[in-house]
Amino acid sequence: MAVPKARTGRAAALHRRAAAIVTAAAEVLDEIRPAPADQRRQYELADQLRSAAEVLAPGWAGSSLESLAAETPPGEGPPAFVRIGTGAPLDDARFPAVVPLLGTAHLVVDTDAREPRVAGLLRSVLLRLLAATPAGCLLVRAVDGTGPGEVFAPFGALADAGLLPPAARDLAGLRAVLTEAEQWVAPDAGRHRRRDRTLLVMVAKLPELTGPDDLARLVALAESGRTSGLHLVVAGWPSTARSSLPQATTVTLRNGYALIGDPPGTSFGGLGGGSSGGLNTPVFVAEDPPVELVTTVCRRLAEQVEAGTRLALAGLLPEPETPLWSVSSAAGLSTTVGDAGGRPVPVGFTELTPHWLVSGRSKAGRSAFVTNVLLGLTARYGPEELACHLVDLGPGESFVEFLQTERDRSWIPQVRSAALAADREYVLELFDQLEAEVRRREEAGQRAGGQRFAELREHTALPRIVCVLDNLPLLFGEPGAGPAPDRLGTTVLARLDTLARTGRAYGVHLLLAGEGDLGLGTGSGSRDSMLGQFPVRVALPGGGAVLEPSNDAAAGLPVGSAVVNTAGGLGGPRGATRGHERMVRFPDPFDAVETVTELRRRLWAARPEGSAPPVVFAGDARPSLRNDPRYRAALLGRAAEPAALLGRAVDVARSTVAVPLGPAAGRNLAVLGPGLAAAQLLVTAARATAAHHPPGTARFVIAALTEEARAAAAGLAGGLTGQHTVEIVDLAGLVSAWPGGGPTVLVAFGLDVPSATELPGQWLRSLLREGPPAGTHLLGWWRSVPSFAALLGPEAELGELAAVVAVDMPGAQLTGVLGRPVQWRPRPGRAMLWDGPDRQGTLLVPFAAEDEEKVA
Ligand SMILES: Nc1ncnc2c1ncn2[C@@H]1O[C@H](COP(=O)(O)OP(=O)(O)OP(=O)(O)O)[C@@H](O)[C@H]1O
């Protein structure tokens, strides 16, 4: 064993000695700069070369980077020459060292980019080439086997624009780049090749395990690439390679400077009059450009590319020449949602893909995406084939493209209803309607012997229904109320589940949109199984939560793009082709006003005769009494019986909420609420009641029992004077008004004041019970519940006393009055009415006060 060990030791010693000699020799060689020729000649030559460089490589291609502002425009095409450093034959005789590259040659550096000077050189050359070329005309593929992979990091902004994807770091990545480059140069690649673009492959260091075959592929590319718009810049070409990189200018690094070889097909030798064999002067390679400059230029390029390739909305719509609404929705609806690599991507609402989830963070283009889908659908399917209900639970203007506006009274005829800043109760009512429709269709199918939608449609006119719910998380709880749905939220969720399950077979489809997992992705198993009803998942920027947790396809999406997955968000192996998933780009419809206006005009003009505009519920607006259809009908004498109108229901039909004031016991109105909003409701209720009596036929007795209601009472009296007999009275006057004769309305503000509570209980009860049959009704305001509750006594039924409307009054306080727990959290601009045996309550938006109306 001793002999081999000694041999190994000797061999190691010899190796060390040899290595030391090589190092020493290299240092000596590095000290030997190319010999300067005659000095005067050097100065002249440097001058000439400076002028030549200005012509050959102007602007970004060759000027000093310090002299260039980030906004400096590119040239007309890719620059033919690029600066790679500064030639310095003498310390004070310098000139830009430029070499031909795009269009003619490649560039190879003997050292890889682990050497910082090389990394700087590559970044400088890349910056110059990119900035000097019109945006989008130079595509770059980078390979960086240096380890951390950060050589090209400053150019990250180009990734989204598709100009420079993240650098390949390993052998597989290198090979993918080589394959792409080979396709680029293949003479008959079968693809429509764009000659107006150049592909630049930049290698900062070849990855570990790069073998002779890979090098041979690079050599082959270098041979054929120049004439096909492919160029290579390779740092760290192995000295052991079988051949050098053909058609390349070489850069050989020495300590502190570099030597530049002759470009292919030409010689620097002619310039200096010296022998050929490269530039006869040392060159300081270009320094690393400032990161801010690189970032700014890349951002500018990305923006320009994005703007230049912006898709047109028209691309998602049928050709304008094709007849409108020629498609049947019997088998399903389908529309183009975007473009993937130049091909339109259609997605449908069918029995197999009945419902969609669309997620994206705020400003990620969610409204844009949904608007595109709706425009695409309404352009393809007529009102007999498609009906839409649009709901946005969030604040703000939505769906304006589809609805009447102040300036444009047209609308898109498939839209039946729309709600902006919708209440959850609105959605519940919409679900009621949709469920009823599903039941009708189900029953019709059963009557016809078990038919489903497509068969049913053969003999019945049935549109498919698309219901859009945006800002869905607000459906499950009030904002900021925590992740668990509250009681109403739980109800709504269960109803959503039912609708999703039953609707699919009967042409009722849901498009749910919002942020994150839409409030659906976590929690109980029932939600998980509900998610199974939503095979179509669309992830916009920040919307990856609607994909499977392991599917990161949506990471880093830019605005205007989306991952469209039709397999419930399921991913697949990285890099594998996923037939069920596409990355699409989609246009901004808000940027295509003309196209939208034109389409809207066409659709509106084609609307079936007699079609009505969509009923719009605007959650943050107050309805006006004067515009209320029931109020107007009353003024025209068309009301069946007197009624107090309170506001508009939070429902799809926007029905007027009325308390009929017929001759039955208890047809009175009790407004319960601590503030003036309640008094205001009483005022409009009284005004509306007055409109139901022909002028001059009723007597209004108005009593302001609290100071704070005096103005409201006076305003009401003023408004009614001239219409009817009006008396303003005090408590005694009020008491003396009943019993009385003829149609009389007692309007009492503040019935909770002590003096009023001392009213003989018997008087108030008899008024409430016996007044209506005798034509006398009470419209009263109580600021607190107990004084009203006291009227109930042990045996009285609420129905015999009054309808109750609560304004700003927590439900818990009403438990005693209504005789059961009340789920009602008051909120501004809302009131709840309980009238008659339906103890459920009707949520309403009270009419605006008259002065608010005037302002509006
Ligand atoms: N395809 C697109 N390309 C470029 N910009 C777009 C695109 N789609 C939408 N935008 C723009 O992005 C911005 C946000 O879009 P949009 O209003 O659709 O987002 P959102 O996610 O619905 O926002 P919100 O938070 O208001 O719900 C808008 O200014 C819009 O014009």
From TrEMBL:
ATP binds at G360, R361, S362, K363, A364, G365, R366, S367. The keyword S-adenosyl-L-methionine does not apply. Keywords: ATP-binding, Nucleotide-binding. InterPro entries: FtsK/SpoIIIE/SftA, FtsK_dom, P-loop_NTPase. It comes from the Bacteria. The keyword Nucleus does not apply. Residues 342-545 form the FtsK domain. One of its GO terms (molecular function) is DNA binding. PANTHER family: DNA TRANSLOCASE FTSK, SPORULATION PROTEIN RELATED. This is FtsK/SpoIIIE family protein.
